[in-house]
Amino acid sequence: MTSSVIGQLIVKDWRLNGNLISILVGVGLLALVMAQYATGEAVRLFGSVWFFVSLGILATMLPTSAILNERKKQTLAFIMSLPVSPVQYAMAKGLSVAAMYLVPWVTLLASALIFIETRHALPLGVIPTLLIISMLPMVGFCLTSATVLVGESEGWLIAANIATNSSYWFIWYLITRIPGLKQHWSGPVAVWNAPVLMVLSAEIGLCALIVAIAFFFQSRKRDFIH
Amino acid sequence: MTDFAVELSGVSKKYRYFTLDDVHLQLPQGQIMGLIGANGAGKSTTIRILMGLVHQDAGEVRVLGHRMPAQQVAAKWDIGFASEDMRLYETMTLSWHMSFIRSIYPKWDATYAQLLLKRFGLHAEQKIKGLSHGQRVKAALLLVLARKPKLLVLDEPTTGLDPVARHEILRELTAAMADEGRSILFSSHNTQDVEQISDQITFIDRGRIIDSMDKETYLDRWRRLRLEVPLGVELRPLPGIVGVQRQGRLAVATSNAFVPDLAHAYESAGVHVQRIENMTLEEIFVANVEHNREEVEA
Amino acid sequence: MYFQIMEQIKRRIMVGDWAEGQPIPSIRQLAVDLEVSVITVKRAYYELEREGVIVTQPGKGSAVASSPGLGARLREQELEQHLEQASRIASQLGIPTKQLLGRLREAGDRVAEKDKELI
If we measure between CA atoms, which residue out of B44, B42, B143, B144 comes closest to residue B84? Predict the structure, then answer.
């Protein structure tokens, strides 16, 4: 019975946030198209940046819409009156929000990869780096979601957003400096060497760690509503 | 094992500016309890602890036999909760909310839900953001009533409502009690509503329970005595009198433990008892709180 | 508050709505109908039973007591109460009983006048 409640909560989140996701996926795809087909170099660059930015925006807005607003707009009491515990709520929230981010993320990433493979807009060697860079908003998203779920306030959300958004570029810069990455960009083949795999596992591991810590703190809460 | 729908023993909760202290409360199954208190007295906190939304610092909480908040999931299958600070999803319709609840609770009574829509004057296809305050309260109530839960926990269900809406709600609450297995606990600072439909009354003030007992017995204990004090006669305090107001030769004495002997005691002291009046719950509420605050401060 | 319920029930018996020996709604049912608490109705029934106005059989529910002339007796009781109250107020106001009787006659005349106007 409990699993059905969690299931219903997830469905509910999708119903409520579907619009946001569709819009951002639309924007992201548009950005990709721009990057591919536009004639001016500046416009193509703009398109590439926008692709990345739309993932970043989703990472910011989704936690706001799906997590923070539930608390701010006081619908949380309504949900907590259902047969669900704070930990189960966090689980349902985590799953729905993760799914809601993964769908657009995978869509956009897959579209980018398809463009690269079929239209050879960029050399195939850039793919590993593309993957690494696309994982950054994913990590940022995990951090933002976890922070706002546990921190429960707008202040925490803003702090997490500032921290993640301002670090993307710096981390991107660091990544380009990793030996074994940059030199293969212009290569005709995607190279999955040790540095690539290490960075990817670090990113994935970081996501998992953030989620685990969030659950730990969430389960120790005594007052769910103040 | 349990004859009580709700049982709080020695419950305490400390906040920065407010403390809920040593709360004892028992609601027998099949009865309605009205929780009365001024704003900030601790009604909402008590209810949140009861629902497992807030973890008490001390004391035991049992709802429908389940320990809270540890067994809150099991308990909430049979509890219908609605509170003043609870909101529904603005962008969705009432109909969506009804389907949402129905998908979770198998005991949803669709026929009764339709009847309530009509009685409350609500339109299912309307979005929540388009509803007035009164309609939102009724919508939230519909969502809990149609499930026919064993226990209804309502935080200020009639606050801020016009008399017609209030009547509609009181009618449905009393109608729910036709089933002996159902209980209701509601908080209010509207003494009229509490007086009308409660079986048990609990007074709470500044984080402490002042009184908790069945309504009729409670109303029976309080009296207002209109006295005439002749010159030269002293008005001495008597046991059972909690307050006296004087206006020259006239005085009004309030008693919370009235027995006919009390009137005789006055008469034999030379004080003439003009009238003995029953008190409304509102008058009792005010007198009780004042008396209690004096005692605490003393 | 139970007092008001008692009065309501007595009134229904007085006007003949509920006949002697006729079953009356269960405590819970009446509570729902009147939109009041069960405990209020319970207390009212208890007091009414003590006064011999109704009877309750466990498992069978409640009914108006089947003593003949109950309605008339209740009407008598009500009149007695009003008379006693008038007497009490008169004595508080310092009006002697003889004057009270005269005032009662005058009141009767006034009522007759008002009734004529209504028709």
Answer: B44
Specify whether C86 is located in the same domain as C114: yes
Structural domain boundaries, residue C79: 70-118
Question: Residues C10, C57: one domain?
Answer: yes
What is the domain count for chain B? 2
CA–CA distance from B156 to each of B37, B44, B151, B182 (Å)?
Answer: 11, 9, 16, 19
Per-residue pLDDT of chain A (226 residues; tens, 9 = 90+): 677 899 899 889 888 888 888 888 888 888 888 877 777 777 777 777 888 888 888 888 888 888 888 877 788 889 999 999 888 888 888 888 888 888 888 888 888 888 777 776 677 888 888 888 888 888 888 998 898 888 888 888 889 888 888 888 888 888 878 877 777 777 777 778 888 888 889 999 999 999 999 889 888 888 877 6
B164 closest CA partner among B132, B125, B124, B207: B132
Comparing C-alpha atoms, which of B79, B50, B43 is closest to residue B67?
A: B50
CATH number reported for the structural domain that contains residue B69 in this entry: 3.40.50.300
Per-residue pLDDT tens over the stretch B49-107: 999 989 999 999 999 999 998 999 999 999 999 998 889 999 999 999 999 999 999 99
* CB B62 within 8 Å of CB B6: yes
A183–B contact, CB cutoff 8 A: no
B293 inside domain? no
Q: How many residues does chain B have?
A: 298
Query: What is this structure's pTM?
Result: 0.86
Test the A interface: residue of B66, B103, B150 with most A CBs within 10 Å: B103
Same domain for C59 and C10: yes
In a domain, B80, yes or no: yes
Check pLDDT > 90 for residue B230.
no
Contact: chain C with chain A (3+ CB pairs below 8 Å):
no
What is residue A51's predicted lDDT score, i.e. its pLDDT? 80
Query: Partners for B (CB, 8 Å, 3+ pairs)?
Result: A, C
Instruction: Say whether the B–A interface has 3 or more Cβ pairs within 8 Å.
Output: yes
The tokens describing C25, both together, are 């709604």
Q: Are residues C59 and C79 in the same domain?
A: no
Q: What residue of B is the nearest CA neighbor of A87? A: B73
Q: pLDDT digits over B235-271, tens only?
A: 888 888 888 888 888 889 999 999 888 888 888 888 8
Q: Note whether B46 and B33 are within 8 A (CB).
A: no
Contact C54, C45 (CB under 8 A): yes
Q: Find out whether C52 and C107 touch, Cβ atoms under 8 Å.
A: no
CA distance linking residue B290 with residue C99, whole number of Å: 46
The string of pLDDT tens digits covering residues C10-65 is 988 888 888 888 889 999 999 999 999 999 999 999 999 998 889 888 887 888 88
CA distance A81 to chain B (A): 6
Is the Cα dihedral C108, C114, C117, C119 positive or negative?
A: negative
Which domain CATH number covers B241? 3.30.70
% helix / strand / coil in chain B, to the nearest 5?
35, 30, 35
Do B88 and A78 lie within an 8 Å CB cutoff?
yes
